[in-house]
Design goal:
- The complex is a heterodimer.
- Chain A is built from no helices and eleven strands.
- By secondary structure, chain A is mainly β.
- In chain A, strands 2, 4, 5, 6, 9, 10 and 11 form a seven-stranded mixed β-sheet that branches. A four-stranded antiparallel β-sheet of chain A has the order 1-3-8-7, with no helix packed on it.
- The model of chain A has no long low-confidence stretch (mean pLDDT about 90).
- Chain B contains no helices and eleven strands.
- In chain B, a hairpin with a 4-residue loop joins β7 and β8.
- Classes of the chains: A mainly beta, B mainly beta.
- Chains A and B meet through β5, β9 and β10 of A and β4, β5 and β9 of B.
């Protein structure tokens, strides 16, 4: 069966520090991968989308970047965190467009 | 692009009563409408979805209706139980790549 792993679950980082959040999918090949951010428990905002290795589109220009070094690995990064980067970050995958999106358990990031 | 509006933002119901959440969308070409349930501190999980070739779909206590002419779809939960308490999101496709536009969410509270 397919599973998605996302870590860490919680993270507290100082302003100006780097960030690396990792997401891996098991049990499927060539998934479509997504990074979402959710503020205040509502409203999922799509940050990045990837249809294949090194094929990533950015939805919202900001202080973050994403990479996909392997087929089932998706990484969200920042060189210097801002206070406004705080939020709940969710990784998700789909097999095909317009099918069920499977979400990870999320990472609660607090920038202090 | 697709715009999805969701109402109400909060919904409090007595256990055993029904709950209805409504969403409207703007792109008449949209053909896939999922509903997600998010429990506190977890990632969203698909509970039901509907495609544009049907007007209604039911799964036990949960049903979704779609009115393509009016461009709105609704989630119906009957015989609500305390475990139905969560945030519910509707969504519609933003493009053919499977990116979803989510509604702002509805906090449902079921009181015993």
């Amino acid at each position: 069966s397919q599973t998605i792993h996302q870590w860490p679950a919680t993270l507290v980082q100082p302003v100006g520090s780097p960030l690396s959040l990792e997401c891996t999918v098991e049990g499927t090949s060539n998934p479509n991968l997504y990074w979402y951010r959710q503020a205040a428990g509502r409203g999922l905002q799509l940050l990045f989308y990837s249809i294949g290795i090194d094929q990533i589109s950015s939805e919202v220009p900001q202080n973050l970047s994403a990479s996909r070094p392997q087929d089932r690995q998706f990484i969200l990064s920042s060189k210097k965190l801002l206070l406004s980067d705080s939020g709940f970050y969710l990784c998700a995958w789909t097999v095909n467009p317009n099918t069920e999106a499977f979400f990870g358990q999320g990472t609660r990031l607090t920038v202090v | 692009g697709e715009n999805v509006e969701q109402h109400p933002s909060t919904l409090s119901v007595q256990e055993g009563d029904s709950a209805v959440i409504k969403c409207t969308y703007s792109d008449s070409a949209s053909n896939y409408f999922p509903w997600y349930k998010q429990e506190l501190g977890k990632g969203p999980q698909l509970i039901i979805d509907i495609r544009s070739n049907v007007g209604e779909k039911k799964d036990q206590r949960i049903a979704v209706t779609l009115n393509k002419t009016a461009k709105h779809f609704s989630l119906h939960i009957t015989e609500t139980q305390p475990e139905d308490s969560a945030v519910y999101f509707c969504a519609a496709p933003r493009d053919s790549w499977g990116k979803l536009q989510f509604g702002a969410g509805t906090q449902v509270v079921v009181t015993p």
